Amino acid sequence: MIEIDGSAGEGGGQIIRTAIALAAITGQEVEIKNIRANRPNPGLAAQHLHAVKAVERLSGGKTEGLRLHSQKLRFYPGDLRGIRADLDIDIGTAGSITLLLQCLIPVALFAEGETVVKVKGGTDVRWAPPIDFYREVFLKALSVMGCNIQIEVKRRGYYPKGGGAVEVHVHPLDRSLHGFVPGNGDGDGDDSKSGVVRGISHSSGLPAHVVERQAGAAERVLQDSGYEAVIEREVSGSVKASSTGSGITLWRGYKSGTALGKPGKRAELVGEEAAIAIIEELNSASTVDTHLADQLIPYIALAEGSSELKVREMTGHLKTNIYVTKRFLPDIRFEVTRLEKEGVVLLRRR
Fold first, then answer.
1. What is the DSSP letter of 270?
2. Catalytic residue of the set 50, 202, 291, 317
3. Is 152 in contact with 167 (CB distance < 8 Å)?
4. Please, what's the b/e burial string for 191-203 (b: 16 or more CB within 10 A of its CB; e: otherwise)?
5. Which CATH class is domain 2-181+288-349?
């Protein structure tokens, strides 16, 4: 049984999601101790329970210690099998949908048949990738690696009520995952010095001008930095509102910027924050942003062929995902080189 220290690195829920997914895919049993030890409320939260339960159903696996606030669990995977249209998950309140999908999607890719899952929870919440990042950046990278995945947003959910709804279709891999080497002029749109920054400014239960002000502020900041911007406006009505909130996500190739509204925060500040975040990525010599890099680690480790990423920095999440991945795939080598002239870190998987 593989033992994982849940307090390693940033010590958060990502360790659980990556470890359970890789255990199901590789068929190796795993014990995770000190779960979320570095968080204010240690142990398993609701979204982790739902993620593990979903993987149990896909893999025919069993889990010991699967309860709220548990700081240790053991997972025993079974044979992967796809589930057709009957996997419904309600995380409750504003638990992050994308963090749950972080655990579920890689397992579903290796299942026998298509996996269809409907998830309720938070689509745009703090400390988690927004759903538009998943649709427009993350899935684009996975598509290049040979994956066929669709995500449809039925309804947005914000903190604290949540209530968002997403339907996900994951088709099994035809053969295997391909290596990933962005930035070589292959038409994937990863040249940060050209092209249009696209985005979506959205809100529910708020006046329409909130969305307009977020988008307008982001467009001004981007244009002042020399980037053309095309930002969609989405007000509740086109997507049925179930909770009150707002946000904006911007993307260009494999880079993104995002910001969320909150009571008392000016809409213009939300738009400016998202624009500043993506400009920092676009102005660097990186080929992927820091958020995408750490989420791709399990996929490039499982791929046939080499991968190569350039990132602005080695974040705690990136280091942690490498640690967990190597526990399951010890023969995989990750080479990390600091390119001083370019001001980025080169990450190679051989």
1. H
2. 317
3. yes
4. bbeeeebbbbbbb
5. alpha beta
Query: And the tokens for 300?
Result: 């490039």
Half-sphere exposure of 88 (CA within 13 A, CB side): 2
Q: How far is CA 212 from CA 151, 248, 264, in A?
A: 25, 11, 17
Average per-residue pLDDT for the chain: 92
- Give me the residues paired with residue 89 across strands: 119
pLDDT at 174 over 50: yes
Q: pLDDT tens across 189-207, in order? A: 444 455 899 999 999 999 9
Radius of gyration of the chain (CA): 20
SS3 143: helix
User: Is 69 known to be catalytic?
Assistant: no
Q: What tokens does 170 get?
A: 């994951």
Give 30-58 pLDDT, tens digit per residue: 999 999 987 888 999 988 999 999 999 88
Residues 312, 113: Cα–Cα separation, whole Å:
38
Every domain range in the chain assigned CATH 3.65.10.20: 2-181+288-349
CA atoms of 332 and 114, how far apart (whole Å) = 28
3-state secondary structure of 128: coil
Amino acid making up residue 308: E
Considering the chain, tell me which residue range(s) the CATH 3.30.360.20 domain(s) occupy: 197-282
Amino acid letter for position 222: L
Per-residue pLDDT, 187: 39
Q: What is the pTM assigned to this prediction?
A: 0.93
Contact 76, 56 (CB under 8 A): no
Label residue 257 by pLDDT band (50, 70, 90): very high
- Classified by CATH at the fold level, domain 197-282 comes out as Dihydrodipicolinate Reductase; domain 2 (3.30.360)
- Which of the 8 DSSP states describes residue 96? B
Distance, first Cα to last Cα, the chain: 26
Number of residues that this document lists for the chain? 350
**Which pLDDT score is estimated for 112?**
87
96-112 average pLDDT score: 94
Position 33: which residue type?
K
Buried b (16+ CB within 10 A) or exposed e, 249-283: bbbbbbbbbbbbbeeeeebeebbbbbbebbbebbe
CA-CA distances (angstroms) from residue 129 to 83, 96, 160, 209, 293?
Answer: 25, 8, 16, 25, 13
